[in-house]
């Protein structure tokens, strides 16, 4: 597999300088591990010093870095080298044969009343239930489950083990036992959504669970019934979002974060990994709640004190009063 | 799809007043989004004010709310409106065609020595291994795995991707390497248990892992070997329960909570989401251990102080001593 | 199923004393629940008192415990009773018929360009994509997914629902939307690796994700792209390891722990369950970061104080200054 530098520029644009367009490229690599047949990129000016050391045949850089790059060898200049790199990986991937031919794999089970666009790919062991809709060019990689009446938009990618439209977790207590509340809503997923392996998105109780366009969700994420997620929000792995939470657009939710139910998170909010959101967030910012890690010996001492923190606060208050009294006495 | 008010009362009981039994109902909806063809319910008297605004054709209410509801329109009175609502969703669901016909789907793999009740439903791509038992009216939705020798009771629902009876995580260290401890126990699941998508319940090491009747488990939950879970306990998504923990009956475990191994949790205990249970709990109460979330800037300051909390406590102690000495001096 | 004591010693070594080699054993059991047909083991000298009470026909003990054991009945002495017990479970398991016959189950989908060793077992509904390699005696239990170009070593066990080689989570922001960075690396897994149910290991972005020999990973673990995990490290359930983290050999990562991306963890490090590793760890030790659990009432008070902890520290500092001034005054 490989491409010539000239083919890359022909496909993706940018300006090639200081190198022969026929130079064969066999690898995309980070600056530090690139070899003479690699193309690399400089995204963050902080790493500019790596330009001098890299063995790369060509480096994708912003115009401001053009001279520094040319001092070393060939470069492609482009306003956003990281986005260019992303498109280059897509060009590279397009050369690879697909894992499975387009269309519905013979081991997939598709209900006759489901609607799968002819340009969609449905991999081995997928199940698509009655009334489900899968949009154009969407790819269900392998054993993806699309529950009854759920809708997946266009150009989505669902990785192996994804479960869309299992029942939300709803029960009514009656005489100490749990009556099932049947989940009568569905899941509606927009266009250009990617959903990681073994992630689950439950159907709504009465209304739908809704994932807007361009949302990217990592592996093993749990999205409960009636959640709404705004466009272009990213959610890292192991995260849990409880029922009826409403996450804004352009948010960034760190891995293993958790968001309580019935909350609202403002557009553009970032949540640090493993943090627990217990109240609505109306002002976009980066929010964090992580217990700092220490050696276990140190932690034990601090955790013991933490259990008495409100008492410590009382003791400080008392000290302040007593000291005030002493000072006034004088 | 729809039902007349009279059909609902005929099926579920309750007393219909102020409305025509032939009124067609096409939707179950919350009070605030109900329309003239919706039936709604008032569960929490706190929301009684919504009665005045709702467009619902009929509202399910407790007898105490009868008058307020009638002032608006039709109502069904019943002692427990939320449980009535739950049963109404079941009535509604029963009208829908099932995702797959009853019985064993042709793509399921059932070992000839497994015992599947003829009234059970086994969806596409399920695997049921040798010696496993699946009880009457139990539903395995799709690609559910029931390991060798495991038992599922009656009227259970297992959602897509559930894995029952994978090996527990047991190894013995020998010369810096790990010897596998084969997991010789099984999993025994009672009646009326519901298990969410992609949840895993491991087989016991020597004895069995046991889930009692009426337990409800959400998605992506990890239940390790030899855990025992008491009847009618609910466990929300992403939770992890480590080996040999014994959870009581009627407990409520919040999402992404974790329970260490070999602990006991008293009947009726509640654990807040994301909290880590590090010791046995003998007295039922609500227990919490969540690092409060703040803006990252605030968090950084507080987390830094937290790492020195036991020192702060020492400084307070010193201050108290010094102040005492001063006061006594006078 | 059963074995005679003499058969056990013949297969596993050790020295049988005080018992008839023809004694039939039908169960392996803990000391406290063993019966007259059980074999048990004493691993931890702390539990030596249980020797006197056990009903076991034979107990596996270290030589130092030989006399105490013989006072009760038969024993097998061996330097490492726990490792002996592990091997005994393997001997036991080998008597059971396998869940599925060796070889590739007819419902598995194996790409013609994948390379599966003839001694490997591929269970129902597995998918093995183009260019993937599965080593000798490796077992894929059921619906395991091995992505394009990924390599699994010898004698590995992959439990149901495992996903190897889904795309890593990589996107470049462009005009507020996310461009996919195609994941061009693969996953390389060494020998003797065990991977728990529904665990996901993503393919690398440019280079590979690498799991070294002897690593044991529990259920529902998320391992992101380009992670490297050193030999014989164990990782408990629900854990998340973010992209490009480099975990050493012989580490022990507790359940639901999380490790940020691009960190390094020294060989031999232990991380407590649910702890969040936010910086590299260069010195092996046990590290912990857990918010201590309390009743919710106590927690509320302490959590409120925690949000002002850095202010409390300032107040202590002020008190110290004021007290100093007072003392110097005198």
CATH C-level name of one domain in chain A: Alpha Beta
Strand fraction band of chain A? 25-35%
Could you tell me the CATH topology label of one domain in chain A.
Udp-n-acetylmuramoylalanyl-d-glutamate--2,6- Diaminopimelate Ligase, Chain: A, domain 1
Instruction: Output the number of helix runs of chain A.
Output: 6
Q: What is the radius of gyration of chain A? A: 27 Å
Q: Cα distance, first to last residue of chain A?
A: 86 Å
Fourth-level CATH superfamily of one domain in chain A: MurE/MurF, N-terminal domain
The oligomeric status of these chains comes to: homotrimer
Strand order of the largest sheet of chain A: 8-11-14-17-22-25-28-31-34-36
Shape of chain A: flat
Structural class of chain A: alpha/beta
Largest sheet of chain A, in brief, is:
10 strands, parallel
Helix content of chain A: 10-25%
Overall pLDDT score of chain A? 95
Number of strands of chain A: 37
Largest interface: A-B, 76 and 76 residues
Contiguous uncertain segments of 5+ residues of chain A: none
Subunit structure (chains A, B, C): Homotrimer.
GO molecular function (chains A, B, C): N-acyltransferase activity; UDP-3-O-[(3R)-3-hydroxyacyl]-glucosamine N-acyltransferase activity
GO cellular component, one term (chains A, B, C): membrane
Catalytic activity (chains A, B, C): a UDP-3-O-[(3R)-3-hydroxyacyl]-alpha-D-glucosamine + a (3R)-hydroxyacyl-[ACP] = a UDP-2-N,3-O-bis[(3R)-3-hydroxyacyl]-alpha-D-glucosamine + holo-[ACP] + H(+)
